[in-house]
Write a structure and sequence with these properties.
This protein has about 180 residues and is α+β, with helices and mostly antiparallel strands. About 15% of the residues lie in helices and about 40% in strands. It contains three helices and ten strands, in the order αββββββαβββαβ. A hairpin with a 3-residue loop joins strand 7 and strand 8.
């Protein structure tokens, strides 16, 4: 597994996803125009007879969800750009399948990805949904434009508390 800190030191100027199992990186051809973050706190709602309101007891904070759109274009850039577009497609799809070399249930899921948007976000996440749209097919067959809607959910292996979020936001460091 690649060193988390060295990946952050090499952070690109553009948004990137890094496969934390292989160290392979996919840099956005164009930074997404929009990023949506969803965060929710879970509460148990207890109804106490005779009380004028529902008592809410904190359970946990749900995982941070990041949703964005990536656009890749090989228009007028030749076959190498088309190959790069198709490689980006394979990279993203591979983040949704379990790794071959795992024999334990614990490590048997799809690889984690480091989601990096320089000076804004660095979280360990899993890809939970991809939606591909292809436009302008080339004469050879492959598309020259690929639009990918991506949904990532943060994965944390340690306690994250209010003070950490207040101090660092979504730049998690060594999560």
């Amino acid at each position: 597994m690649p060193d988390f800190e060295s990946i952050l030191e090499e952070a690109p100027a553009k948004m990137a996803l890094v496969n934390l199992s292989t160290g392979e990186r996919l840099e956005a051809q164009f930074n997404p125009e929009r990023l949506e973050e969803t965060l929710a706190a879970s509460y148990a709602r207890q109804k106490v007879p005779g009380l004028s309101h529902t008592v809410k007891q904190f359970i946990n904070t749900e995982d941070l969800i990041e949703t964005f759109q990536l656009v890749f274009s090989a228009n007028g850039l030749g076959t190498a750009a088309q190959a790069s577009l198709l490689d980006a497609r394979r990279f993203l799809m591979a983040l949704c399948y379990p790794r071959l070399a795992t024999s334990l249930v614990e490590g048997g899921g799809a690889p984690r990805a480091l989601f990096v948007w320089p000076n804004f976000i660095s979280i360990s996440a899993v890809v939970t949904q991809l939606r591909f749209r292809y436009e302008r097919m080339s004469k050879a067959g492959p598309p020259t434009i690929m639009i990918v809607d991506c949904t990532l959910e943060e994965i944390r292996d340690s306690l994250l508390v209010s003070e950490d979020v207040r101090d660092n936001g979504t730049e998690r460091g060594g999560t």
